[in-house]
Amino acid sequence: LRLTDSYAQVLADLGIDAVVLSTPHSQHAAEIAAAARAGKHVFAEKPFTLTRADAEAAIAACRTAGITLGVGFNRRYAPAYADMARRIAAGEIGTLRHIEGQFSGPASYQTAAGNWRANQAESPGGAMTARGVHVLDGMVHIAGLVDTVFAFSERLQHAIDVDDTTACLFRFTGGVTGMLGTLHAASRLWRIQAFGSQGALETCS
User: Fold this and answer.
1) Per-residue pLDDT at 135
2) Confidence tier at 150 by pLDDT (50, 70, 90)
3) Which of 17, 85, 181, 182 is the most buried (most CB within 10 A)?
4) Contact by Cβ (8 Å): 132, 161
5) How many other CB atoms are found less than 10 A from the CB of residue 172?
6) 183 — phi, psi (to 5°)?
7) What is the pLDDT of residue 81?
């Protein structure tokens, strides 16, 4: 790999067709728009952006440029999750009533105070930006858009300026309810469970 410290140089290189962004979250919107103007396809790590307005502007820039845009929700393609989603869509558990999930881990114990991830501006909602957003993506994929949210987010465990304990209640537009817990200072757990009128399905690791 050829190394450079200039994003502009990457975008100007005619030999590069696409960029992968694993940069600070607050930079994604501008970097995506710049890539679109340069005609480069984009794969952005999640969270895609930190505001809805930035997300909409970035998507619009990519549509205008006719380039492909992808976001790093890799867990949606895990075989166990994909099979669960297929079975729910096929009606195997009847009418979907409720969905809940958990994605937690100890990563913030290794995050130094000076790291760009160690502040509320780059990591709002604590582990939501790194972990919980994967579960929320799965929930939206299965249950549709969220129309109501109630959440607690607290810094209870570690010293860096990022919440470590976040819990959410959701109501989806179709009436399905949901719960999500995501912790930055806990043992590792990934789990989504869906409850229907005739049964339930769960995937976890």
Assistant:
1) 96
2) very high
3) 182
4) no
5) 20
6) -125, 140
7) 96
18-21 sheet: strands from edge to edge = 18-21, 41-44, 69-71
Q: Is the backbone peptide bond immediately before 24 cis, with ω within 30 degrees of 0?
A: no
In this structure, the strands spanning 165-172 and 146-154 are antiparallel
Predicted TM-score (pTM) above 0.85 = yes
Q: Which residues pair with 51 in a beta bridge?
A: none
Helix axes 52-65 and 28-37, enclosed angle (nearest 10): 10
Neighbours of 74 (CB within 10 A): 11
Q: What is the pLDDT of residue 158?
A: 77
Q: What is the CA radius of gyration of the chain?
A: 19
User: Which residues make beta-bridge pairs with 201?
Assistant: 194
Closest C-alpha to 46, from 19, 21, 12, 14: 21
CA atoms within 13 A on the CB side of 81: 19
What is the tens place of the pLDDT at every residue in 46-88?
999 999 999 999 999 999 999 999 999 999 999 999 999 999 9
Q: What is the DSSP letter of 74?
A: G
Q: Which residues contact 140 (CB under 8 A, 6 or more apart)?
A: 146, 172
Number of H helices, E strands in the chain: 5, 9
